[in-house]
Amino acid sequence: MLPIPKGYKKHFLEWLDSSSPNSKDYYQKIYDQEYIHCRKPIGCHSTPSSNFLKKHVSPEGFISIIPKGRVWGKDGAIITPDHLVIAEFSHQSPHYLRIEKHPIFQQSSLSGPRRVNGNVAVITSVFNSNYYHWVFDVIARIHLLQKSQIKIDQYIINGCKHRFQIEWLKLAGIPLNKVMIAHKDLHMEATNLIVPSYDQPVGHAAPWAIRYLMSLKDKICISDNNPNSFPKRIYLDRSHKPYRKVSNNQEVKRYLTGLGYKVMYPERFSIKQQIEFFSNIEAIVAPSGAALTNLLFCKPKTKLLLFQPKGLEDVSYYIICNVLNVDYYLIEGTPTGNRAVLNQADMHINMSKLKNLLKLMG
What we know:
Layout: E1 7-9, H1 12-19, E2 27-31, E3 34-36, E4 56-58, E5 61-67, E6 70-72, E7 77-79, E8 84-86, E9 114-122, H2 131-148, E10 154-157, H3 163-171, E11 179-181, E12 187-196, H4 207-215, E13 233-236, H5 249-258, E14 262-264, H6 271-279, E15 283-287, E16 303-309, H7 316-324, E17 327-336, E18 346-348, H8 351-361
Parallel strand pairs: 1-8, 9-10, 9-12, 10-11, 13-14, 13-15, 15-16, 16-17
Antiparallel strand pairs: 2-5, 3-4, 5-12, 6-7, 6-12, 17-18
Helix pairs in contact: 2-3, 2-4
């Protein structure tokens, strides 16, 4: 048995600077910091959150190499050889930004680690069952590993029960026989633990990640279907989801279908089919949700009209649209119900605003 970690460092570089005289051997910068210049949402006459107007900064994308590093638990906490947790890699729901609340510090002791030879990459994500987070917190970080040219002997992820997860791993070129699923009793020490940085603070997309994910479309053998056979205008219906639903959905859907919009549920299709659909779309109307990750495959000047509860400062899809030159329209719906978390609130959509913005979209 081992004692629990003696503390933590917020950032990998903070630990590296204090522990290694040869820090350049264990840190590989892949992408420089980058600024994202964003345009005001089109047609938003009220003043949106300042998050929609400011210049966003994407931090460096990098690879960390931790000799005799350890990984612990089902979400993959990262432990250094001198027994410290690296907070920026050790997310845990619901306190993924409060490392002092991490379950590893609630243990009385830790079991001895299983030691493995080779380079073990940890690409866990605390929200791995969510399509958006799987793509940006797992698949995008695989790109950093590939750019580093470090030979990886094993990949540790923390869940692969959905079809889309397996499809995306294959699309990114990861051999499934090299994948290990983290679990609650995991405690492993590797010759070298390789951990790629997150593309942004959790939930925000970096330009390098967007460009890489968009490029994966080229690996898909697109069918010979006539482009005109795909719907040009779609509405992504969330009425079957547990939260962030449109409370007057039937009214909204009836109006949109009258204008020729097709109702779509992307999760019912394979990744290849979703890429084909979104590559041919001209206009999307949708409540904020993970299906909009497929904006990655839209052509420039595609139009998105997003529904979002008023007061929610989520700019995830706004940033993707700005990087890819997709036109971003916004309706801030009136929150309904009694959800304690605004990100999960249902919303009522003002039909007059909807009709006016649809006219503006053309």
